[in-house]
Design a protein that fits this description.
The complex is a heterodimer of chains A (about 350) and B (about 80). Chain A is mainly alpha-helical. Chain A is built from 19 helices and no strands. Chain A has 3 domains: about 120 residues, Orthogonal Bundle (Topoisomerase I, Chain A, domain 4); about 80 residues, no CATH class; about 120 residues, V-type ATP synthase subunit C fold (Up-down Bundle). In chain A, helix 3 runs parallel beside helix 5, helix 10 runs antiparallel to helix 11 and helix 18 packs antiparallel against helix 19. The two termini of chain A are about 30 Å apart. In chain A, about 40% of the residues are buried. Chain B is mainly α. Helices cover about 85% and strands about 0% of the residues of chain B. Chain B has 4 helices and no strands. In chain B, helix 2 runs antiparallel to helix 3 and helix 2 runs antiparallel to helix 4. The chains are: A mainly alpha (about 350), B mainly alpha (about 80).
């Protein structure tokens, strides 16, 4: 991965690994699930979230403060990585971070659909992607979904969104639009990925991510009972499913589950699959997918220490941490007990 | 024809035997130089990784320094050749 004789990957990966080891571990989570929102904020103030908590502390309090600080910190960390990286490493990381552009677009769409206020939507945005603040502000100012589609017409999401907008008008649900965004993201991710041994492994990881995403979509559609054709929402590029078979698979959960357990991911997911069969709950299955993906990225990071994979594994781990802390804070606010919250966490 | 070249070849052989193209001192210098070059190449990656680690956590300074200069042993070992030569 070393480009033009520079030692940039070594530098970036050493820093990223240091940050990775500074993420919260088992012990911290065990403490956190027993705290109230104010205590969590104080705990975060003594960790790497210090700057954000202090900066936002005067304006917000309680769970809001935690949430704003988490999003701000995550955006800052990822922008840091982009600052350090150069050359091909930068390109690969930037591609992956467009995930947050996709996330922001989806959040704005959902906000408009659910009539949320501008501030509510704004607090959920993560400004770690490629969109600049001006574009994001324009998206926030939009009041109609059509407006959002128009604003995005020049970006990588443009074409897909325009096509999906018709479906949205017919069906009145957001799924077509959200999937158009996901698709645009994953397609650019695999585009022109130079093939070498490292890139090959990285591609395998991305394929796993796409497979999991497809499995998740198919299960959700099958569960919701909505009259949608899963094949329309299929993301190309995975290895597990074909567009033609996904329709048949989505009609019966058991077939889908057996397909997944027979695949190369079967071993990693065996626990989660038996949960899915027993508990009939998608949540634990989705959580298992998340942690399997994280584990996979970690393994790749050790196999190719100087490739983009340690960075990707950090990005995933950081996202999980942010999700976990948010879940803890929200859970405590809603009065859930420590054990119930602990079940909701993705801890490695 | 071969008879014509023969005296020339023996003359050449005699000359190379008496004075090698590279003298012992020059060969030793070359080995030290190449070893130093290799050490520099090895330190390149280690140094930048160490800088990254130190930027995150300053207590790693000593470890980083030690690891960075470890390939310097290559040069020291090559230096032994100079005295053996």
């Amino acid at each position: 991965m070393s480009t033009a004789g520079g030692s940039n990957p070594e530098y970036v990966i050493a820093r990223v690994r240091a940050r990775r080891s500074a993420l919260f571990g088992d012990e911290e989570y065990r403490k956190l699930v027993r705290m109230g929102p104010a205590e969590i904020a104080r705990f975060m103030e003594e960790s790497e979230y210090e700057t954000e908590i202090n900066a936002l502390g005067s304006r917000f309090s309680g769970v809001d403060l935690i949430e704003y600080a988490l999003n701000a910190n995550m955006a800052k960390q990822f922008n840091d990585i982009l600052d350090w990286a150069g050359g091909r490493l930068y390109d690969l990381i930037a591609r992956y971070l467009r995930k947050f552009d996709a996330w922001n677009v989806k959040t704005v769409l959902r906000g408009i659909y659910a009539d949320s206020s501008r501030d509510e939507v704004k607090s959920d945005l993560i400004r770690a992607g490629e969109f600049d603040d001006r574009l994001i502000d324009r998206l926030l100012d939009a009041t109609e979904i059509e407006e959002v589609v128009e604003i995005l017409s020049g970006t990588m999401f443009g074409d897909g969104l325009e096509a999906a907008f018709e479906d949205y008008e017919e069906a009145g649900v957001l799924v077509p639009l959200e999937n158009a965004v996901d698709r645009a993201f994953y397609e650019q991710l695999l585009e022109n990925l130079v093939v070498g041994e490292e890139a090959e492994q990285y591609r395998e990881f991305l394929e796993a991510e796409i497979d999991f995403r497809n499995a998740r979509n198919a299960l959700r559609i099958a569960r919701s009972g909505a009259d949608l054709d899963p094949a329309d929402y299929f993301i190309e590029g995975g290895t597990l499913f074909r567009a033609s078979e996904i329709t048949a698979l989505a009609t019966s959960t058991s077939e889908l589950v057996s397909k997944i357990s027979d695949s190369q991911y079967g071993d990693r997911l065996s626990g989660a699959i038996s949960d899915l069969e027993a508990a009939d709950s998608l949540i634990s299955f989705e959580r298992a997918l998340d942690s399997a993906l994280l584990e996979y990225a970690d393994t790749l990071g050790y196999v190719f220490p100087l490739s983009v994979t340690p960075v990707i594994s950090y990005i995933l781990a950081k996202e999980r941490e942010v999700d976990n802390i948010r879940a803890i804070a929200r859970g405590r606010e809603a009065g859930l007990g420590p054990d119930e919250i602990e079940e909701e966490l993705v801890i490695q | 024809m071969i008879e014509a070249i023969e005296p020339l070849m023996t003359a050449l052989q005699n000359e190379t035997a008496s004075s090698p193209a590279i003298t012992e001192g020059a060969a030793a210098a070359l080995s030290v130089g190449i070893a130093a070059f290799a050490a520099g190449y090895a330190e390149r990656g280690i140094g930048s990784a160490a800088m990254g680690a130190i930027a995150e956590d300053e207590s790693l300074f000593v470890n980083g320094l030690i690891l960075t200069v470890l390939p310097e042993t290559l040069v020291i070992l090559a230096l032994v050749v100079v005295f053996a030569a």
